[in-house]
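Ops channel
N.P.: pipeline sanity check, posting one input/output pair.
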């Protein structure tokens, strides 16, 4: 097969940052995706509909002339999110949901939720208004091994939450474990999960073999091979619970290549090429469209995109670095060869 054409895909989990850095990268996503759920973990976090609409305006203003890309904004849930804010978000079509960061779980999560019991009323309001909850699914207890934090979150937080709020729509973002996959599969269609390209392609050896590899460090951290295989099986199965979310999370090179490097992999530049590689290795390229272009829109109850994206078989080299405001950014697979190249046709 020399090319494969899909309905225009969407990225259901993306970090775009802000300002000059955002302006340098946003087109990478717009070249591949019709829409993206834009994460709210800016500094300060995007906690209100008003702030999200302003941020959305800055994203649209940074797009090149003629780009067709729709940012779907997620709001940052805190212990103190007012009920009024949930109602406002529910009424704004530009807002797709609320993101739950357990405080301290990941980059810029300090303002996150310090205990699930503190937001019960907010969860009730989300359920009542039909607003999805997007979850970073890791416990933050320092006594829990970092490789076990997702599995522990599922049993101690997510499972009770799904039971207690029977109509709440929930996305387990960037699922990385067999336990996560099995839990989501055991739920009805109101629970879904995004899967990143890097968790489909790499296991934790990629982080620690031949030296420490900071550009493979992200949260949730890469897991062992059996978990990667469970993710590939879920993504390529066609199961409507699972959809594409890159979790592309750019950090400037000095912040990655550091004694205390930031978490996040920059995959947006080559997102569909990386997913195609993972699906091809699994012999499942024919299942890519469901995962990338159908399941997410169906979960959120919004129309699938018009237009198409074609992946052509051709060998090309990923740049070593990219512009990122005043700094440089190292993309996933920097300097390596890829065997697919994506090109989008708006519809
Ligand atoms: C993300 C970031 O840098 O904003 N980092 C990451 O490793 N994925 C935050 C997140 O989604 O956890
Ligand atoms: Zn993320």
């Amino acid at each position: 097969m020399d090319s494969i054409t899909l309905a225009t895909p969407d990225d259901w989990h993306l970090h775009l940052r802000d300002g000059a850095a955002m302006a340098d990268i946003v087109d990478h996503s717009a070249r591949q995706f019709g829409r993206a759920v834009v994460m709210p973990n800016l500094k300060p976090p995007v906690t209100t509909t008003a702030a999200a609409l302003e941020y959305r305006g800055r994203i649209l203003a940074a797009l090149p002339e003629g780009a067709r890309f729709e940012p779907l904004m997620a709001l940052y849930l805190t212990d103190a999110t007012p009920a009024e804010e949930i109602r406002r978000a529910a009424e704004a079509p530009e807002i797709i949901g609320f993101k739950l960061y357990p405080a301290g779980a990941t980059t810029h999560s300090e303002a996150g939720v310090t205990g699930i019991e503190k937001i019960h009323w907010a969860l009730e309001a989300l359920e009542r208004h039909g607003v999805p909850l997007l979850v970073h699914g890791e416990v933050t207890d320092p006594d829990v091994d970092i490789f076990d934090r997702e599995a522990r979150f599922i049993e101690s937080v997510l499972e009770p939450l799904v039971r207690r709020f029977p109509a709440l729509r929930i996305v387990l973002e960037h699922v990385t474990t067999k336990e996560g996959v099995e839990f989501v599969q055991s739920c009805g269609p109101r629970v879904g999960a995004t899967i990143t390209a890097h968790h489909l392609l790499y296991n934790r050896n990629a982080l620690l073999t031949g030296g420490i590899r900071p550009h493979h460090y992200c949260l949730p951290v890469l897991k062992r091979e059996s978990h990667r295989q469970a993710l590939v099986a879920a993504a390529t199965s066609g199961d409507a619970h699972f959809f594409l979310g890159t979790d592309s999370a750019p950090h400037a090179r000095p912040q990655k290549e550091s004694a205390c490097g930031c978490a996040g992999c920059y995959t947006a530049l080559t997102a569909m090429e990386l997913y195609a590689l993972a699906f091809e290795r699994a012999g499942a390229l024919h299942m890519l469209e469901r995962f990338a272009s159908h399941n997410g829109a169906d979960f959120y109850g919004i129309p699938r995109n018009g237009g198409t994206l074609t992946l052509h078989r051709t060998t090309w080299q990923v740049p070593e670095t990219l512009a990122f405001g005043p700094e440089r950014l190292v993309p996933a697979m920097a300097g390596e060869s890829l065997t697919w190249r994506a090109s989008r046709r708006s519809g």
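N.P.: looks fine end to end. The chain is about 35% helix and 20% strand.
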